[in-house]
Amino acid sequence: GEDVEQSLFLSVREGDSSVINCTYTDSSSTYLYWYKQEPGAGLQLLTYIFSNMDMKQDQRLTVLLNKKDKHLSLRIADTQTGDSAIYFCAESLGNYGGATNKLIFGTGTLLAVQP
Amino acid sequence: DAGVIQSPRHEVTEMGQEVTLRCKPISGHNSLFWYRQTMMRGLELLIYFNNNVPIDDSGMPEDRFSAKMPNASFSTLKIQPSEPRDSAVYFCASSYQPATNEKLFFGSGTQLSVL
């Protein structure tokens, strides 16, 4: 079935690293995504990783992908109070010959950064 | 571009009333998605369209929910009659597909409260 799971809450101190974990179900997903939702706003794409990669680094963000275990993680280095938000991982599922794919989101992880 | 525009931003209604949520996707995007966000169930995909045609409506909760996309620049999600359990934040998102990756652009959402 379509099930993307995340832990619900993570609390870190400012300056520490944050690691948010996710497990997904569809091994055929071409891309896996991390979205960020700030209070009162819609989701915004943070970063994504192609399924044939193990790691992707983008400034303070590091995405690790373990395809064997269907495990995705997002590491935020030097976490700031402005990073406080809900973080969603998502997998893409193809439909109707892959012409249109849909994103299935995890439950979201609330990241609280303490000053 | 102004991004994905949703209206109204907030809607408070009484049980049994009809509710219509509106969405204007980003110009040039050909795929449109309706999501619902609640604390209990996270972010659920309700329905999505490609080139104004509904592709997958398996996430629509029941017959009280209906969605239309009469043209490339407008979509509605209607609930009739509304019930308190429909209270949630409803997001519209758009993208261009097929594409290298399925990056979604989200609107700010409609906060629906059914009393």
Written account of the structure:
The complex is a heterodimer of chains A (115) and B (115). Chain A is mainly beta. In chain A, 0% of the residues lie in helices and 58% in strands. In chain A, β6 and β7 (61-66) form a beta hairpin. Chain A is globular. The termini of chain A are far apart. The relative contact order of chain A is 0.33. With 115 residues, chain B is mainly β. In chain B, 0% of the residues lie in helices and 54% in strands. Chain A binds chain B through residues 30-31, 33, 35, 40-45, 48, 88, 92, 95-96, 98-108, and chain B through 4, 31, 33, 35, 42-43, 45, 48, 50, 55-56, 91, 93, 97-98, 101-104, 106-109.
Name its key features.
heterodimer; A: 115 residues; mainly beta; five-stranded antiparallel β-sheet; B: 115 residues; seven-stranded mixed β-sheet; globular
SSE blueprint and pairings:
The complex is a heterodimer of chains A (115) and B (115).
Chain A: E1 5-6, E2 9-13, E3 18-23, E4 31-37, E5 43-50, E6 55-58, E7 61-66, E8 71-76, E9 85-95, E10 100-105, E11 109-114
Parallel strand pairs in A: 2-11
Antiparallel strand pairs in A: 1-3, 3-8, 4-5, 4-9, 6-7, 7-8, 9-10, 9-11
Chain B: E1 5-7, E2 10-13, E3 19-24, E4 31-38, E5 42-50, E6 53-56, E7 65-71, E8 74-79, E9 88-95, E10 105-106, E11 110-114
Parallel strand pairs in B: 2-11
Antiparallel strand pairs in B: 1-3, 3-8, 4-5, 4-9, 5-6, 7-8, 9-10, 9-11
